[in-house]
Write a structure and sequence with these properties.
- By secondary structure, the protein is of the alpha/beta class.
- The protein contains 14 helices and 16 strands.
- The protein folds into two domains: about 200 residues, 3-Layer(aba) Sandwich (Rossmann fold); about 180 residues, P-loop containing nucleotide triphosphate hydrolases (Rossmann fold, 3-Layer(aba) Sandwich), CATH 3.40.50.
- It is about 35% helix and about 20% strand.
- A seven-stranded parallel beta sheet has the order 3-4-2-5-6-1-7, sandwiched between helices. Strands 10-11-9-12-13-8-14 form a seven-stranded parallel beta sheet, sandwiched between helices. The chain has a two-stranded antiparallel sheet with strand order 15-16.
- The chain is globular.
- The termini are far apart.
């Protein structure tokens, strides 16, 4: 479907055209008609599918048609990075429109609190907020959601994973019951359906491409002991013209250590995690986006909260503990119909976790050995069904080296 086929305000069509949007993505084609018809909606789609624009466009269309100085739309998100990303998309699509938005998140200094408070008190059309920070503002009594008509929960599964269920219930109990509510989630476990039952009314359900990486991503894995991972990174990057590399690790401590080791061997790397001040994090992302930094080492805080095109390589320094996190990590590459590469390092203790990932994405990925000049590879253990006894038995495989 082309955006020109939708019955949108001419000024919004002009903004959409200026952003270079011509055809809708599958999630946009499925959700836009329902949202424009003021239906509640619950949508399940993987990261990088264009779901943000799927709700931004109807919100802007309503605000152009029915202008207001009140808060019309509240968008609740799990992280400050995602709040900023959505705010930037609103700014882009509303460039020719008289619409205002503000991102509400923690981690800044006193000036950021004051800026957020002023926006809430003086009036802004769209509020994009993390739950904890929004409740902090609401507790002071100056937040007015009486005229709110849209509530949007983005990355709902992630918010529940982070323990925000009670916060979301508290926020939704403080806003008008008569509203349009939209919920977007990458997965649809029972806890999401429980939340949907609380906040949605007769929702339209859309389920697209649940938890599978884009086909344009080349996914491979290396069997490697922990002590050889940095040397393997250096080997993989030697002679390669990769301008943008995102490395994920599970903990802040690991991220700091990996970045230090990469710098020690002469690579251009920065780190990002929750220990950094918000201004520092924004600067790091800006330098990575502008290709001033080749390698960004990150915790999973970025797995859903970074929207940068043309990331050449996503590298999982360790296997994510949650199979869903793998999907979000590798989804940072091959965005907007581009191609990309995702590499995962598997040590001798992580093979069970990687097997769960393969079951989720329904693929058996290529597993390459550590190059001989770097060191030995761990044995790869898989489970195969013993057809004679109807039971599983362990088998060990030594990966074949490339000829």
């Amino acid at each position: 479907m082309k955006f020109t086929e939708l019955k949108l305000h001419p000024s919004l069509q002009e903004s959409i055209s200026a952003m270079g949007f011509v055809e809708t993505t599958p999630i946009q084609a499925e959700t836009l008609p329902a949202i424009l018809n003021k239906k509640d909606l619950i949508a399940c789609a993987q990261t990088g599918t264009g779901k943000t624009a799927a709700y931004i466009i109807p919100v802007l269309n309503k605000l152009i048609t029915n202008p207001t100085s009140d808060v019309d739309t509240l968008i609740i998100v799990p992280t400050r990075e995602l709040a900023l990303q959505i705010d930037q998309q609103f700014e882009g699509l509303s460039y020719f429109l008289d619409v205002s938005s503000v991102a509400i998140y923690g981690g800044g200094d006193g000036d950021s609190w004051t800026t957020q408070k002023n926006a809430l008190v003086q009036g802004t059309n769209i509020v994009i907020a993390t739950p904890g920070r929004l409740i902090s503002h609401m507790n002071f009594g100056y937040v007015n959601f009486d005229k709110l008509t849209h509530l949007i929960l983005d990355e709902a599964d992630r918010m529940l994973d982070m323990g925000f269920f009670e916060d979301i219930v508290k926020i939704t109990s403080s806003i008008p019951e008569k509203r349009q509510t939209l919920m977007f989630s990458a997965t649809m476990p029972e806890k999401i359906r429980k939340l949907a039952h609380k906040v949605l009314e007769n929702p339209v359900e859309v389920n697209l491409a649940l938890s599978k990486p884009a086909e344009a991503i080349l996914q491979v894995a290396y069997l490697v002991y922990d002590q050889n991972k940095i040397a393997l990174i250096k080997k993989l990057l030697d002679g390669k013209d990769l301008k943008s590399i995102l490395i994920f690790s599970a903990t802040k401590r690991n991220v700091k250590s990996i970045r230090a080791e990469l710098v020690r061997i002469g690579l251009n790397a920065k780190e990002i995690h929750s220990d950094l001040e918000q201004s520092e994090r924004e600067q790091v992302i800006l330098e990575f986006r502008n290709r001033k930094t080749q390698i960004l080492v990150a915790t999973d805080i970025l797995a859903r909260g970074i929207d940068i095109e043309e990331i050449d390589l996503v590298l999982n320094f360790d296997v994510p503990g949650d199979a869903e996190d793998y999907v979000h990590r590798v989804g940072r590459t091959a965005r907007a119909k581009a191609s990309g590469v995702a590499i995962t390092f598997i040590n001798d203790t992580e093979q069970g976790k990687f097997k769960k990932i393969e079951e989720l994405i329904e693929l058996n990925l290529i597993k390459l050995p550590t190059p001989e000049e770097i060191g030995e590879s761990p044995k790869y253990e898989v489970k195969k069904l013993n057809s004679n006894k109807g039971q599983y038995k362990k088998r060990y495989y030594k990966p074949k080296r490339k000829q």
